[in-house]
Write a structure and sequence with these properties.
binds manganese (II) ion, fructose 1,6-bisphosphate 1-phosphatase activity, fructose-bisphosphatase, binds 2,5-anhydro-1,6-di-O-phosphono-D-glucitol, alpha+beta, metal ion binding, 365 residues
Length: 365
């Protein structure tokens, strides 16, 4: 144990990324991006914590509706601007897509609406997609919230041949595709989330295991706290908004009812835990084991969560930790977005329990 403690004590995110860059020169530039992510998440953590002070004016609504049809919180906008600035000034990013931006934006902040307008300078190798403040409906009550980030490489190709209904629709979709924002999760080179809770946790994968860093506020650094974390294969917790249960797909209803009654594969009666912030629910699932999901229902036939900047990056982390992530019928990581804000049904977590969902859907076919 002593060696392990020695090995991980005081390993800051900066030192971790420097070591990664030395050992993997081909991804050295990603470590530059994580310098920006490190700073941005510390700043957002500070903003979220200080938003509860009497002098703060950052709680409440911005007063407009975003492209999702949601009433934007002030902190949705503030954190979005903060992340865009932090990522843009790395000089490594060609395109950014965000939950809070109608369209993907290029380095100078132009919306990418027409394939001719895309400006990608030399050295801007990456595309970043992000949800700047996940669970923001909870932020006024001080309930945990998070940030989700996925990093793709520019690969200058757009495999999707759009049989567009009308020219206008085609241009927009083609631009998003040409801007390389419509890539499947299997193309992700890195994913991370930051959880603003009792502590501030930065959880990341570069495709070789999942690493948890905890913000040590006395030194202002993220320090490695759980190297190469693995999710328990079995579990006794499910995490869904059960208010929608009667509207879910039949297979999903059957499995959750069996988990409630203790008649599922494990024979265990499950408990329900749900805080309404995906980052918080997924983090508990990763550490304790469990199944988190937002299934399709009769009202939201594609579920609620967005594939590009919630489903895919969180699925990458879950799979790298030995878990599974499915739409019920397909591996979430293999789903190619048709457009930036596409929603996707998803169930992710402990392998054996998620496999029950996959098997139930297969049987219902
Ligand atoms: P966001 O705050 O980024 O819009 O995401 C909210 C999402 C996700 O965090 C959470 O799991 C889900 O919405 C909760 O939805 P319900 O309130 O419908 O359960
Ligand atoms: Mn939102
Ligand atoms: Mn979200
Ligand atoms: Mn959000």
């Amino acid at each position: 144990v002593f060696d392990e403690v020695c090995e991980t004590t005081g390993v800051t995110l900066t030192r971790f990324m420097n070591e990664v860059a030395i050992l993997n020169p081909e991804i050295a530039e990603i470590t530059t991006l994580f310098g920006a992510i490190d700073t941005a998440c510390k700043a957002i953590s500070n903003l979220v914590k200080r938003s509860q002070l009497p002098s703060s004016e950052t709680l409440g609504y911005q007063g407009n509706v975003n492209v999702q049809g949601e009433d934007q919180k002030k902190l949705d906008v503030i954190t979005n601007d903060l992340l865009k600035r932090a990522l843009r000034f790395t000089g490594r990013l060609g395109i950014l897509a965000s939950e809070e931006e109608d369209e993907p934006v290029d380095l100078i902040g132009n919306a990418v609406t027409d394939s001719e307008e895309i400006v990608i300078d030399e050295g801007e190798k990456y595309v970043a997609v992000f949800d700047p403040l996940d669970g923001s409906s909870n932020v006024d009550a001080g309930i945990p919230t998070g940030t989700i980030i996925g990093i793709y490489e520019h690969d200058d190709c757009c495999e999707i041949d759009y049989d567009c209904v009308d020219e206008e629709d085609c241009t927009e979709q083609e631009a998003q595709c040409l801007a390389n924002t419509l890539q499947p999760g299997t193309n992700l080179v890195a994913s991370a989330y930051c959880l603003y809770s009792s502590s501030t946790f930065l959880v990341l994968t570069l495709g070789n295991g999942v690493y948890v860093f905890t913000l040590d506020e006395t030194i202002g650094e993220f320090v490695l706290s759980k190297p190469n974390i693995k999710i328990p294969e079995d579990c006794k917790i499910y995490s869904f908004n059960e208010a929608n249960l009667e509207k879910w797909d039949e297979p999903m209803q059957k499995v959750v009812k069996r988990w409630r009654e203790g008649t599922g594969k494990s024979g265990e009666r499950f408990s329900s835990r749900y805080i309404g912030s995906m980052v918080g629910d997924v983090h508990r699932t990763l550490l304790y084991g469990g199944v988190f999901g937002y299934p399709a229902d009769t009202k939201n036939t594609n579920g609620k969560l967005r594939l590009l900047y919630e489903g895919a990056p969180m699925s990458f982390i879950m799979e790298q930790a030995g878990g599974l992530s499915t739409t019920g019928k397909r591996r979430v990581m293999e789903c190619v977005p048709e457009y930036v804000h596409q929603r996707i049904p998803l169930v992710m977590g402990s392998k054996n329990a998620v496999q029950e969902v996959i098997d139930e859907y297969a049987e219902s076919d």
